[in-house]
Design goal:
six-stranded parallel beta sheet, alpha/beta, 427 residues
Length: 427
């Protein structure tokens, strides 16, 4: 079996979708499925060894300039091809974390139009490569927003399965101006008929995206969010907190929507009467969000808590494991309904229980694994209470940690997810 997996790079930042795509591709290879992990827009960045192809189709600089300066399409293709050089794309998008998605409305609509948009030649090039050189049994897209070429793929590969993984499309769409958002949703809805299956990671997201894009129930397949638990499996926790210290942790992108400020507020309240608690954060920090982190550090300094907060940077896989094993409890109180939450599974695999808001996919992940506590999404009082209760009850934390590890192994292993995807292709 041969599979082409189109993964949309997120410029220079660690992206949960990219990491999940990379892990799936590696797991497929382990069960003798030839999987070509092909980046579009930008190269992907993962915290483990990437198996992605070195070239980039639909390069971010290229498609953007074609939108702004359509006359570029008259330049010789070899000249324009220089715009897709991975090193150039990485350099030009290194500050992509600060890009306002509201500015991308026209580009998004044009991309979704595929053969009728300003990037038509680039879609033709991608389709020709897949249909002529690779001839796969299936093409998997990491989201529907890169699906402008689906009609061409269906025409050129009538017997291949076309599968789309939905894992955050709505979040991007919600940042577009209303007119552009409505047009993009309509175009996405028109693409549904070309897709055999839509994979989602939770019942919550199946219902949400099924309604948004008018996807028939028979095309929606729930494939539980998964990780490779092997790197997190250690017989002990060599980085246990110091005696008498309770480490509250956060591991996610440093951005307002991820809710670090909410955890800081809860920490402030608890720390006012508890000298043993410290706060530790790790995660990718884009240039655009540096003022956000600085404001939180200033807030803690004003509260006299600066020496009890540490930002550990953006760790690689080994550093992530060490970080998770060095904390007592993880919480990422997001402001939005997250469709994934890989950090929940990673924390549980490392033996650290979680306190999460009961919205988005978090409720299903915590209930599936049994490795944490759910709280009302917008209640700092509830967040504080849950943290304080678990802090005071080490035996319960150990029980949650054991259940969480077992739940990840049994229900959220990337090996199982890869087999389910391979079986779906064979249907």
């Amino acid at each position: 079996m041969k599979v082409v997996y189109l993964t949309a790079g997120a410029a220079g930042m660690f992206c949960g979708s990219c990491m999940h795509d990379n892990a799936i591709a590696r797991a497929l290879a382990s069960i003798d499925v030839e999987c070509i992990l092909q980046p579009v827009y930008t190269p992907i960045r993962t915290d483990e060894e990437s198996v992605a192809d070195g070239k980039v189709f639909l390069g971010g600089i290229h498609v953007y300039l074609l939108q702004q300066m359509p006359w570029l399409r008259f330049l010789p293709r070899p000249v324009r091809g220089l715009l897709d050089a991975p090193m150039l794309v990485r350099w030009a998008t290194r500050r992509a974390g600060g890009v306002d998605p509201a500015k991308l409305g026209e580009l998004s609509i044009s991309m979704l139009r595929g053969a009728d948009g300003r990037q038509a030649e680039e879609f033709n090039r991608l389709t020709d490569w897949i249909a002529t050189e690779l001839k796969p049994d299936a093409v998997v897209l990491t989201n529907l927003l890169i699906g402008g070429g689906l009609p061409q793929l269906r025409e050129r590969l009538p017997d291949a399965k076309l599968i789309v993984v939905l894992q955050g499309d709505d979040i991007f769409l919600d940042h577009l101006p209303q007119a552009a958002r409505s047009a993009a949703i309509e175009l996405c809805t028109q693409l549904v008929r070309y897709v055999d299956y839509f994979c989602v990671h939770s019942q919550f997201y199946a219902q949400k995206m099924g309604a948004l894009f008018e996807i028939p129930d028979e095309k929606l397949v729930i494939t539980p969010l998964s990780i490779d638990p092997a790197p997190f499996r250690t017989s002990d926790r060599p980085n246990e907190p110091s005696a008498g210290e309770f480490r509250l942790g956060y591991l996610a992108r440093i951005a307002p929507e991820k809710g670090l400020h909410r955890l800081v507020e809860a920490f402030e309240r608890i720390a006012a009467d508890d000298p043993t608690i410290t706060l530790h954060a790790a995660g990718w920090l884009g240039n655009g969000n540096e003022p956000y982190l600085r404001s939180l550090e200033k807030r803690l300094q004003d509260a006299g808590l600066a020496d009890r907060f540490t930002y550990h940077g953006s760790p690689d896989l080994a550093g992530k494991v060490r970080f998770l094993q060095s904390i007592d409890l993880l919480s990422v109180p997001t402001e939005y309904e997250d469709p994934k939450g890989l950090f929940v599974l990673e924390s549980l695999a490392a033996g650290t229980p979680v306190v999460m808001p009961d919205h988005g996919a978090f409720g299903e992940l915590v209930r599936s694994t049994g490795g944490g506590v759910l709280v009302a999404p917008d209640s700092i009082d509830a967040l504080c209470a849950a943290i304080e209760e678990l802090k005071a009850d080490p035996s319960r934390r150990r029980a949650l940690a054991e259940a969480g590890r077992r739940g990840v192994d049994e229900k959220h292993s990337i090996a199982t997810a890869a087999k389910e995807l391979a079986d779906l292709i064979k249907r």
